[in-house]
Amino acid sequence: MYRPFAAPTTPALLQMVARRQAARVAEGFAAAGLTDLRPGHAQLLVPLLGGGRRVSELADGLGVTRQAVAQAVTVLERGGYVERVADPDDGRARLVCLTPHGMTALRAMRRTALTLEGEWSRHLGPDGLDQLRELLTALLSEDGGGSRNGAGNTAGR
Where is the HTH marR-type domain positioned along the sequence (predicted)? Predict the structure, then answer.
């Protein structure tokens, strides 16, 4: 039997895992009544746990363009997950801050992540999960992943 793509590459496998994880996060949001929130937009909420951030800071931290972050912030603001407030250190600048609704979304995301980790631990065993975490961390390190965007970003250095 002819199988043109018999063995997916490791990057393809990682993409499949990421898509499956994103689908599970979306299911978790739906179960929490957050049907207007997409997992990709929700990732923007995580860095806001430490307090308000400028769009430029968020973009730099996520390794994406300011325009992409600004668009996502607009969507999240419409949904009531974030709000823009004046930066107390610079009246011309605005900070993106979490709202209580945004905290609800983060709690739903965390519940889903912990459920997934539990499933992976049962499937891989605790040592296997630890190894997976170490390997993924190594790939995301400054010199391990060959990435030009996001974690491990070495562009411009």
Answer: 7-141
